[in-house]
Design brief:
six-stranded mixed beta sheet; 191 residues; 6 strands; Pyruvate-ferredoxin Oxidoreductase, domain 3; alpha/beta
C-alpha cells in the first residue's frame, strides 16, 4: 500500500463514468486505501469527453494523474481510450469497451471515424482487455449496466476482495437495479 496506483476512466457523457468512479473509489476506501478522485465533465450532456482520475495508496496528495503515469486506462469508448493513451505508463494496462460512439464531426460527415482502433491499441499495449460491454449488459437484463460490466472486467486486474466490490455496488446502486448490476458485474468478470 506504499505506492500510489492511478486509474484513468475515459469515455463519453452519459456512459455512467461518474457512477463507475464512485463505485471504484468506494471499493478502494473499503479496502483501506487513501483515495483521491477528480472528474472532468467537458460537454458531457452533449456526448462530449468525460474523464475521472482515481488515485489510491497509503497516502495520496493529489487527485490528478500526470501524463504517462496511469497504471490502468479504463476506457468506456474506444476512440476516447485512444485519445487518453498518452496518460498510460509504459507498462500500463487497458480495459476498453469495444463500443464506438460517433463524435458530432463524424455524425455530420465532416470527418471519418478511425478504423482498426482495437488492433492499434492492442499492438501498443499488450495487456489490453477488450470487452463487449453493451452485449454483456443486455445479457444482464439492462443495457444501462455497461459501466458495471466494465467494472467487473477491471476488477480482474486488481487485487481487491470480490466481497468488497459487491458491497460497494449494493451501497451505490439504487436497490431496484441491484440484481441486474450484480449480474452485469459478474458477466464482466467472466469476459
Amino acid at each position: 500500500m506504499d505506492k500510489v496506483t492511478n486509474i484513468l476512466l475515459a469515455g463519453v457523457g452519459g456512459q455512467g463514468i461518474l457512477l463507475a468512479s464512485e463505485v471504484l473509489s468506494e471499493v478502494l476506501m473499503m479496502a483501506g486505501y487513501d483515495v483521491k478522485k477528480n472528474e472532468v465533465h467537458g460537454m458531457s450532456q452533449r456526448g462530449g469527453s468525460v474523464t475521472s482520475h482515481v488515485r489510491f495508496g497509503e497516502k495520496v496528495y493529489s487527485p490528478i494523474i500526470p501524463e504517462g503515469e496511469a497504471d490502468i486506462l479504463f476506457g468506456f469508448e474506444i476512440l476516447e481510450t485512444c485519445r487518453y493513451m498518452p496518460f498510460l505508463k509504459a507498462n500500463g494496462k487497458i480495459v476498453v469497451n469495444r463500443l464506438q460512439i460517433m463524435p458530432s464531426s463524424v455524425a455530420t460527415g465532416l470527418e471519418r471515424y478511425p478504423e482498426n482502433l482495437e488492433a492499434m491499441i492492442m499492438s501498443k499495449v499488450p495487456e489490453t482487455k477488450v470487452v463487449d460491454g453493451l452485449d454483456l449488459a443486455v445479457n444482464a437484463g439492462n443495457p444501462r449496466t455497461v459501466n458495471t460490466v466494465l467494472l467487473g472486467a477491471l476488477s480482474k486486474m486488481m487485487d481487491i476482495d470480490l466481497k468488497l466490490w459487491n458491497q460497494a455496488l449494493e451501497k451505490m446502486v439504487p436497490k431496484k437495479f441491484i440484481a441486474e448490476n450484480l449480474k452485469a458485474f459478474e458477466l464482466g468478470r467472466q469476459s
